[in-house]
């Protein structure tokens, strides 16, 4: 199941309208709608963090479908990602850092 469908399912299970979820999470209702309808396929970690907090689930639960065969991210990685997010590092900056690390390994 896609992230948007999981968000919609959890929102409905909790009896929340799009407006209620948007107001509680501090995000635009139209953006939540576009995620739920799978128009927006790559929501930010900040968005997922806000939504998961209101829905009272972990970001991991939004990202990973229990039926997926993908490995679960261990708690240390989640803590590092959360720390990076809270420090204000953008996804683009994080991607650049990873690319630099890969480049360093190939040029040693």
Secondary-structure map:
Blueprint lengths: L2 H11 L4 H8 L3 H8 L8 H11 L3 H5 L11 H12 L4 H16 L2
Helix pairs in contact: 1-3, 2-4
Structure commentary:
This is Helix-turn-helix domain-containing protein. Residues 64-102 form the Sin domain. It comes from Bacillus kandeliae. The chain is mainly alpha-helical. It has a single domain (3-106), classed as 434 Repressor (Amino-terminal Domain) (Orthogonal Bundle), CATH 1.10.260.40. Helices cover 66% and strands 0% of the residues. Helix 1 crosses helix 3 and helix 2 (18-25) packs across helix 4. The longest helix has 16 residues, at 91-106.
The helicity comes to 55-70%
Order of helices and strands: HHHHHHH
Could you tell me the CATH topology label: 434 Repressor (Amino-terminal Domain)
Q: How many DSSP helices? A: 7
Give the DSSP E fraction (strand runs of 2 or more residues).
under 5%
Mean pLDDT across residues:
86
Query: Which stretches are low in confidence, meaning pLDDT under 50 for 5 or more residues running?
Result: none
Number of domains: 1
Structural class: mainly alpha
What is the tally of beta strands?
A: 0
Shape summary: elongated
First-last Cα distance: 42 Å
CATH architecture call: Orthogonal Bundle
Query: CATH homologous superfamily - what is it?
Result: lambda repressor-like DNA-binding domains
Computed over alpha carbons, the radius of gyration is: 16 Å
Task: Assign the CATH class.
Answer: Mainly Alpha
């Amino acid at each position: 199941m896609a992230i948007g469908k999981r968000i919609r399912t959890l929102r409905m299970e909790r009896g929340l309208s799009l407006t209620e979820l948007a107001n509680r999470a501090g995000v635009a209702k139209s953006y939540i709608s576009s995620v739920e309808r799978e128009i927006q396929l790559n929501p930010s970690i900040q968005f997922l963090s806000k939504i998961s907090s209101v829905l009272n689930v972990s970001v991991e639960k939004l990202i990973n479908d229990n039926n997926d065969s993908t490995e679960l991210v261990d708690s240390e990685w989640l803590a590092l990602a959360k720390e990076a997010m809270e420090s204000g590092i953008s996804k683009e900056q994080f991607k650049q850092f990873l690319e630099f690390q890969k480049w360093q390994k190939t040029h040693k």
